[in-house]
Every structure is written in C-alpha cells, then in structure tokens.
Design brief:
Helix content: 10-25%
Number of strands: 9
Structural class: alpha+beta
Oligomer: single chain
Strand content: 25-35%
Distance between the termini: 31 Å
Order of helices and strands: EHEEHEEEHEEE
Shape: globular
Length: 177
C-alpha cells in the first residue's frame, strides 16, 4: 500500500491545566516560541454537542484556550486548556495513549539542568538509551513538568544503527532546521 499522500507528523496535542504556566515552562526550559493562539480568553469557548462529538470531549466540556508552540524544529505542540469534569491524572508511561514528548538535545546535562531550573522534576539521572540508540555519548532522561506530563530529553550524537530488517531510518532534528 502506498502512502504518497502522507508527509509526516504535523503537531502533537497536549492538554494542560493552565496554558500560560505551561507556555512559560516550555519557554524557560526549552526556548519555546508561540506561533499563534487559536483560542484566547477573549473568544467564546469551543463547546456544545457538536464539539464534544468531533473532539471526544466529555459532556459539558469546553476548550477555553488553544495555543501552538514551536520548540526547535520538527512537529509543533498544540496546547489546550479545557474545562471538563472529571479531570484525570496526567497519563503515565504505562497508560494507553500518547504518553510523552521527546526533545532531541545536543547537551543533555545542560538541558536537564534548565528543565529542572524551570520547575520540572527529573525522574532519574541521565541514563543510556535503548538498543539502536545506544551509540557512544548517548543519553536519555525523563522530566516531569509542573503539571505532571512527561518530557524526555534525548541525545544520540553518533546516530542510530539499524537491524538488517529495518524498513527505514528515523527522523532526527537538525540543529539548523
């Protein structure tokens, strides 16, 4: 089956309790920039039966703010601030669904220090990556954001290696876009 119509990942969606606090964390920790606000406090919230059906919101839920952030190059982060009950705990690695955002960094110790300084919590020290990512100088560490989402910092300065049955190489962000 050909997928010539598919280009790649456009953005990742992230629901946060406070869009301004989340934006400040991403700016302070990772140099994020606001591309645009799709929905502001001055706009009517997106709500109602049609929105609930289209977006899978719980009955009575409403999107009160929406913002597109850019970190480096690659897919953007589309953040949502939603009023809905019941609110659930942030998804953890063992839960079904999209569970973390991975940021490729050139200096993992510096990136980790900044993420923690900005209010994140390192779940461990820097550790080695999984097979095919475990070339010399590699490293990975998960950081819990102030609102409980997981961000992985990862570096693979000497690239990946691939098994004989690999169908393609993975995309790696370039430092200069």
């Amino acid at each position: 089956m050909a997928f010539e119509y598919l280009i790649g990942i456009n953005h990742l969606g992230l629901t946060v309790p406070d869009i301004d606090e989340a934006t400040e964390y991403f700016k302070s920790a990772f140099g994020a920039k606001i591309a645009y606000d799709g929905l502001t406090n001055a706009d009517e919230p997106r709500a109602g039966q049609v929105v609930e059906q289209q977006l899978g919101l719980p009955k009575g839920g409403k999107i009160i703010r929406q913002r597109m952030l850019v970190i480096g190059n690659g897919p953007e982060i589309e953040m949502f601030e939603i009023e809905a009950t019941p609110q659930r705990e942030p998804i953890k690695l063992a839960d079904y669904g999209w569970n973390h955002l991975s940021l490729y960094v050139t200096d993992i110790d510096k990136a980790l220090a900044q993420a923690v300084k900005a209010g994140g919590q390192a779940l461990s020290g820097v550790h080695g990556n999984s097979r095919y990512e475990d070339t010399p100088g590699n490293g990975s560490v998960y950081v819990l954001t102030p609102w409980g989402s997981l961000v992985e910092l990862q570096t693979i300065p000497h690239g990946h290696y691939y098994p004989a049955n690999s169908e393609t190489n993975v995309w790696v962000p370039k430092k200069d876009g």
